[in-house]
Every structure is written in structure tokens, then in C-alpha cells.
Amino acid sequence: MSSVNKALVVKWFEQVWNQGRADAIDDMMAPDAIVHGLGPASQSGDQFKAFHRTFRDAFPDIIVRVDDVVAEGDLVAARWSASATHRGNGLGFAATNRPAQFTGMVFVRVENGKLVEGWNSFDQLGMMAQLGMVMRPE
């Protein structure tokens, strides 16, 4: 089952992020899924869809590469890297048209072939620094 769950996570990144298929979210995520780490509080599936919409607006050309994926039982861990150009206003400020590269990791719990819970961590500070929105201390 671990290989099936790993394939689901790789498919998620390819279809939801790289292809921008918002309809694939419902295909792969359970209706009562919980998403952690993409805002100040846990999100429902519908709240994740709003996050996806605004993030894809900000980065319409995002490409996410899954660098590593491991699974045990119903848990899958993936390490990923992304590249994108900030071309939209989805982050709450005007497009900078700057490129950004950032990395992240996710743990996902899978039940009955659907993502039911996810814990996300990605380098938002590094991304914002590349967009010129924050200065990193030297």
C-alpha cells in the first residue's frame, strides 16, 4: 500500500500544482481533510482550495519537483523544490515579476486512496525575500 500512497502524493504535485488542476483536489483529497501549515490555523479542504487558487494566481507558472518521497503505512513524506515567477496579486501585493525558487516538505496521511490530513512546511521567508518583500539579516 505504501507504493500506492507514494504515487498518490507524486500525482498530487503533478496535477494540482504543476498542471494547476483545481478539480483534481476533489479527486485526491477527502471532503473532510485537514491541512496544517499553510496559514495561522488548520484548514479544511475548501480553505485549501482558496489557498491553491490564490497561490496559483501569484505563481501561474509554478513547477514543483518531488525530490524524495518515502512512505510507511498510511503516512507519506515528501521533500520538494519549486520554481516560479511572481506574476499575479494572489499573495496580497502587486506582482513583482521576479523569479523565486523555494523548497518544502510535507507529511500526508492517506485513507481509502484519498489525502485526509497534511502537515506542510516550506521556505516562505526565502520566497518573500526573493520577491523583494522582506530583507534577510546578514
Topology summary:
Elements: H1 2-18, H2 23-28, E1 29-36, E2 43-44, H3 45-58, E3 63-72, E4 75-85, E5 99-111, E6 114-122, H4 124-130
Parallel strand pairs: 1-6
Antiparallel strand pairs: 1-2, 3-4, 4-5, 5-6
Structure description:
This protein has 138 residues and is of the alpha+beta class. The protein has one domain: Nuclear Transport Factor 2, Chain: A, CATH 3.10.450. The chain is built from four helices and six strands; from the N terminus they run H-H-E-E-H-E-E-E-E-H. The protein has helices spanning 2-18, 23-28, 45-58, 124-130, and strands spanning 29-36, 43-44, 63-72, 75-85, 99-111, 114-122. The chain has a six-stranded mixed β-sheet. The chain is globular, with a radius of gyration of 15 Å. The model has no long low-confidence stretch (mean pLDDT 94).
Features:
single chain, 138 residues, alpha+beta, Nuclear Transport Factor 2, Chain: A, six-stranded mixed β-sheet, 4 helices, 6 strands, 32% helix, globular
Quickly describe the structure:
This protein has helices at 2-18, 23-28, 45-58, 124-130, and strands spanning 29-36, 43-44, 63-72, 75-85, 99-111, 114-122.
Main structural class: alpha+beta
Taking all residues together, what is the mean pLDDT?
94
Give the CA-CA distance, first to last residue.
46 Å
The CATH class? Alpha Beta
Taking strands numbered 1, 2, ... along the chain, how are they ordered across the largest sheet? 2-1-6-5-4-3
Overall outline: globular
* Proportion of residues in helical segments: 25-40%
CATH-defined topology: Nuclear Transport Factor 2, Chain: A
Q: What is the number of helices?
A: 4
Integer tally of domains = 1
**Major beta sheet, specifics?**
6 strands, mixed
What does the radius of gyration come to? Answer: 15 Å
What share of residues are in beta strands? 35-45%
